[in-house]
Design a protein that fits this description.
about 210 residues; four-stranded mixed β-sheet; homodimer; about 10% strand; 8 helices
């Protein structure tokens, strides 16, 4: 049995969708950020890094979005969420996911999580002011250099797609006009029509 | 043929060591940050994200450290740099590498690359002041929660080891006393004795 620890509005949406795409049998446990439940003793015992998503497996826990996504793809190979037989194509999937995690998600995080990197309230406000510019630059890169279409990697739906979808939903809140990126916007609409995404929405995962 | 684009002092050291561990036949091309060569027209044509490392393969380029490391492990399976037959063990390797890329490297980057996230010089200075505290917190997490020993994942040397080694070498510059983390310090000394690391040093990769 798999158990996904998730919080609506966070990047846990990506593995949540991947689990549905895989047809996985899983439980979901909501971690409530409004009560700072991620810092509770019980949750820190599961994930000392106090973050979601976390995937509990029979063998132990996995944190980090990219690691969870690759695990889901490997555990449910019939869903074909990563072209595992092709090491170069797999590398391009991981390249995209790593860019999402280590650049795009970080650009966004400077809006709400500035305290991680600065103490001065004015420094934190300055970071927040730069978020729209940085997120727009990231999505310009995705739109013009990385996105193939109709899915991120071209014809095959992969773990890149829920990752992009989850972060693209932050653009309005980050004060970026999504219509500047028509390919990514069309992808977002395409994603919203998938049964997996509808299922996660119905379960409160977004 | 493989070609690694690298810059001494950067995270390109990690895949550089992995290539040596794998016994790979590869060329190396130095990208000179002192002349901002990463923003040259020629390099942007290879990597529009203007970063190292980049690995050129017969099928195309791969950016992002974690993606390059996994590719090297898959291309040279006899080197056994990731326990590929065990999907959970593979997930734990990816979890560690993702933490290094999306948390530890980012904590460090606020020293030299603050302009990515703020414009105000005082904000950038405030970020720089917090780097020692953040890097120490990351290494406390690694030392107490993640590192198994003698290698990161226990008995097997994996791609996690060059990744940790490359970042641990930044601790002095980040004003963190490495002796606070004796397991990671012993790992660093153990790494420095490996032929792969000595080979990269001799080739100017660090």
């Amino acid at each position: 049995m798999l158990r996904l620890y998730f919080t609506p509005g966070t990047i846990s949406l990506a593995p949540h969708i991947a689990l549905e795409e895989a047809g996985a049998d899983y439980e979901q446990v909501k971690i409530d950020f409004s009560t700072v439940q991620q810092n509770s003793e019980d949750y820190l015992a599961l994930n000392p890094r106090a973050r979601v998503p976390l995937l509990m497996t029979d063998e132990g826990s996995i944190s980090e979005t990219l690691a969870i996504l690759l695990y889901i793809a490997q555990r449910f190979p019939e869903a074909d969420l990563v072209p595992l037989a092709d090491r170069f194509a797999t590398a391009k999937v991981m390249e995209f996911c790593s860019y999402m995690g280590s650049t795009v998600h970080i650009a966004h995080a400077h809006k709400m999580r500035g305290r991680r990197w600065a103490d001065d309230p004015e420094a934190i406000e300055d970071m927040q002011r730069k978020v729209p510019e940085n997120m727009a630059a990231c999505f310009e890169m995705i739109e013009t250099q990385m996105f193939q279409g109709p899915w991120v990697m071209g014809g095959q739906f992969t773990i890149c797609d829920p990752y992009l979808f989850a972060i693209a939903r932050w653009l309005e809140g980050d004060k970026v006009d999504h219509s500047r990126f028509p390919k990514v916007l069309a992808h977002r609409i395409r994603m919203a029509e998938r049964p997996s995404v509808k299922a996660v929405m119905a379960k409160g995962g977004a």
